[in-house]
## 1
Amino acid sequence: MSMTDRKLNLILFGPPAAGKGTQAKRLVADHALIQLSTGDMLRAAVASGSELGERVKLIMQRGDLVSDDIVIALIEDQINQNPDAAGFIYDGFPRTVPQAEALDAALASRGMAIDSVIRLVVDDTALMDRIKTRFAEQGRKDDNPESFAIRLGNYNKQTAPLLPYYVAQGKLAEVDGMQSIESVSTQVGDVLKMIKAAKSPQKKGFFARLFSR
């Protein structure tokens, strides 16, 4: 089994205010994973002054959307720069089925694959109540209930088509995101244990069979 086979590749789904960021930070700290955030990668590319960064800079200056090919190139560049990482968490990408297909192809060309898509399942009404309380206490203009409702709606629309895609691959794992931070972390940790078991030579394919039931 190669080193790339042993690397973990996770997608962490969760709407705004669901605690996705908190869980991602714990995965980074506890499992030596690297979080690949689309926004962070684009900003870092521009700051680097590289040829790819200059392309990204010009696109962003025009106000155009950065193409999927460029985002994939940035992801591959980060994988190249971090050969000793235990694995990666993909944050903000993919958002559509074509993006998911492009990511699968890019990883496959490197002998890698997405191991699991961990979805934090939350109650939209409870999230709205949480935001209303936070807004009443802090009064942040960029964190008001109206704008949050739009963000939440956009998230639900974007992720809905992706769920069947990963279910068909036997890679979707759902975690109750309404529990405490510690409980959610424990559930996420359980998923990682099953992934690692599946990646062992003796138990290869176990994880896919488990989640295809």
Note: The domain at 3-190 is CATH 3.40.50.300 (Rossmann fold).
## 2
Amino acid sequence: MFYRPEDGHDLPHNPFNAIVTPRPIGWISTRGTDGSENLAPYSFFNAVAYFPPQVMFSSTSAKPDRDGTKDSVANIRDTDVFCVNIVEYAMRDAMNVTSGPWDKEVDEFAKASIDRVDCETIPCSRVAGAPANLECKLTQIVQLPGEANFAVFGEVIGVHMRDDCMVDGLFDVTKFQPLARLGYKDYTFVKDVFSLTRPGE
């Protein structure tokens, strides 16, 4: 099968998200200038550089109360900081609650009964007990083609790793089984790992 996205695909559901998988989930926490808290998952998320360490996530829809974007991007525009919380399989249901289209006044930490703690380097909350948290300062927001597509880039200036996820000095993802997004309503998680040595190493 071949199709041009501009012409449509004639399938029951858009296959694009099912093709580019699995995708890590960036559970983005932000705090508004009014002190309000927000927590939302984004599956267009990844690390993009080592030195300095940098991450990105993309927001691809808008809410009526947020001037063409969503709560996360709006808060980051105002404060220049955000935190990426890594989602483990055990927190899948809580993460799903925070994905709802809630009003900006809704505190997703409270709505999903998620414990929070202050970040160390930025004025923002993070998910307490998450396998890892990346405290970030904004480097740039890039508007992508499309009505409400924004890519947010940040430099990681603080890293938290849960002690039980450390094994012999390595961050072991099998200790918490990171959640990943597939297409449609589907998810998966990492439980098996194998290694490859690059040529020349």
Note: The helical segments are 16-19, 71-79, 92-97, 108-111.
## 3
Amino acid sequence: MLTLILNVLWFILGGWAMGLMWWLAGIVMFITIIGIPWGSACFRIGLLAFWPFGRTVVHRGNLGQQDMGTGAAGFLGNVIWFVLAGIWLAIGHLLEAIALAITIIGIPFAFQHLKLARITLAPIGTAIVDTDVWEQIRLKG
């Protein structure tokens, strides 16, 4: 129930705008054709930006998924992303996290900005899963 309340507060206080901005970036990436891998990542990050509480970011290799995004091509894609957009988006999320962490009420939201900053740096080859599911996978593996 707490996760739902935090997600609703997040959404009302700006999460909807962040998610829409990520989706807009995804549309732009898809238009360029060559940016489709980054566009897919933008849509995934956009969903996380809408409802970040109760979800976590993991490398797809940790889920047993091996594909182009988890290998050398994914690494190259992340380097290109990092230089062109990732570093700047991460800095924005970090600044938001610092501003929110100053207030006691904003601390949970600051942690979500840090989670978004982390995936912003290298989105290719990652998956967003429910935190409970990830804990079960970690305990089994």
Note: The mean pLDDT is 88.
